[in-house]
Amino acid sequence: MFAEEAGGRSGPAALIARAATGWAILGGFLLLAVVAVNAVSVLGALFGASFSGDFELTEMGVAIAVFAFLPYCQLTDANVTADIFTARASPRVVAGLRALASLVAFGFGCLLLWRMYPGMVDQRDYNASTAILQIPIWWAYLPILASLLLLVATSALTFLEDLREARG
């Protein structure tokens, strides 16, 4: 399962790759659930029924799904790049630039993880919840923090792999 994404990796690297892939798939299912909530909400509005809290569920669901996709995008080199600047560069230079980008992603992942944890604690301590459904906001932070932890792991993995490729 998820052997393609493991990409010839073994040991901890393959475990990280499989975890990122599985997490992105879960994020995709969550996004499908958000679409279903919105479809039910639109259909309900057409027939005079209301669906309270659909905006809240959409907001939380999309935020969680977006963060769930970040480690997979890092792992598969699917982030936005401007290839026009590296079209004539050697493979070693391109690998070096990818290693630098992985290092930047690692830094941002660590920064977000470092700051979002206290944010979650504050949301929990102040009992912040959504206005209509009264869902505790800190619940959304848990999968987001897991995504960021996985982003840090995939960034470190891709940094080491790209650095190895840049060195030849």
Overview of this protein structure:
- With 168 residues, this protein is mostly helical.
- It has one domain.
- It contains five helices and no strands.
- It is elongated and about 65 Å long.
Defining traits:
168 residues, mainly alpha
Secondary-structure-derived class: mainly alpha
Count of spatially separate domains: 1
Fraction of residues in helices? over 70%
Total count of strands? 0
Rounded Rg: 19 Å
Average pLDDT across residues?
A: 93
- Total of helices: 5
Instruction: Determine the strand fraction and express it as a percent band.
Output: under 5%
- End-to-end CA span: 31 Å
Q: Helix and strand layout, with pairings?
A:
Layout: H1 3-6, H2 12-46, H3 54-75, H4 91-125, H5 138-167
Summary, kept brief:
This protein is mainly alpha-helical and 168 residues long. The protein is built from 5 helices and no strands. The chain starts with a helix and ends with a helix.
